[in-house]
Amino acid sequence: MNYCLGIDIGGTKTVVALSDGKLNIIDSITFKTESQLGAESLVARIKENYLLLLGKNQINEGEVAFCGVASPGPLDVKRGVIIHISTMGFKNVPIKEMLEKALCLPVFIENDANCAAIAESKIGVAKGLDPLVYVTISTGVGSGIVVNGKILSGHLSSAGELGHVTVVPDGRECPCGKKGCLELYASGTALAKDGSLNKGKELTTKEVFDLYRSGDRQIKEIVDIAARNLGLALSHIYHVIDPAVIVLGGSVTKAYDCFKEPLMEALKEYTQYIDSRDFDIRISSFDGEQVVLGALIYGKEEYENYATKS
Q1: What span, in angstroms and rounded, lies between the C-alpha atoms of 114 and 160?
Q2: How far apart are CA 300 and CA 68, in angstroms?
Q3: What fold is seen in the domain 3-110?
Q4: Which of 236, 152, 135 is nearest to 186 (CA)?
Q5: Rounded distance, CA 229 to CA 269, Å?
Q6: If you average pLDDT over residues 268-295, what whole number do you get?
Q7: Rg from Cα positions in the chain
Q8: Which residues contact 276 (CB under 8 A, 6 or more apart)?
Q9: What is the H or E stretch that residue 86 is in?
Q10: What is the b/e burial string over 115-131, where b = at least 16 CB atoms within 10 angstroms of the residue's CB?
């Protein structure tokens, strides 16, 4: 195999990356997802940027073996369908079929957090550790679980939907239809929204953390509450999975110094039978590329199985 294509569909941005056969990324393009334009528009822009990468690097379409795709969930991985991404407005989108038609490549799709978990397990800060749970905190919240070197997808491919674990019963209404979901309290989106309401002006997540570092007491309370809710959710992971390590990734973890202390306090408070010294929480060493790398790793494994059966 000469070249491979990896795609990371995110709530804010989408990455299209070309790699060689050993999965070393040669070149990539990042563009705004703009999910409000619809799935067909997104697929068209993925194709446009894929062709741009081919032309720029003087690669023929026939030299690319497969496409590995990471997408928020929940997904039906077997059918390649996005079941529902509440933050993007996507519902029952046959993304695998759409991309295969547009790119003329075999496409293999997996949950984005699962892809990141694969990358961390194979080549990241958690290499050699098992079980592993990767938690992404960005536009939303999600997680990927690796047990015995394999993704734990669950019966309906919906394992790891940590963002929709209830942390506040009868709390805020989530677009998923439930109330009190974690990502309504601990995601970058939630922090920006809560900070904006508190200050009476629109703030980004980064600006919220800047205010935290400047000593703003009201913002500190908002961040502390978010961190404690995240700690509560992570305690459930320890009780159910008993992981060797939890890896945190996503844009919000760039401000880990702001929420590490209340997070660890909540973990100690809510987790039984585990000594606080046993909490191995690590921050991803990747600079945002772990998801697309995981999509490439997953895609290659699935492609080799696909090629063997063909």
Answers
A1: 8
A2: 7
A3: Nucleotidyltransferase; domain 5 (3.30.420)
A4: 135
A5: 12
A6: 88
A7: 19
A8: 264, 267, 268
A9: none
A10: bbbbbbbbbbbbeebeb
* For residue 87, pLDDT beyond 80: no
Task: Tell me which of 3.40.50.300, 3.30.420.40, 3.40.50.2300, 1.10.8.60 is the CATH number of domain 125-283.
Answer: 3.30.420.40
Q: At what angle do helices 290-309 and 112-123 cross, to 10 degrees?
A: 90
Region 157-183: what's the mean pLDDT? 93
DSSP 38-101: -HHHHHHHHHHHHHHHHHHTT--GGGEEEEEEEE-S-EETTTTEEEEETTTTEEEE-HHHHHHH
Global pTM value: 0.88
C-beta separation of 109 from 77 below 8 A: yes
Q: How far apart are CA 160 and CA 173, in angstroms?
A: 20
- The token duo for 34 is 């703009």
Maximum separation of any 2 CA atoms in the chain, in Å: 61
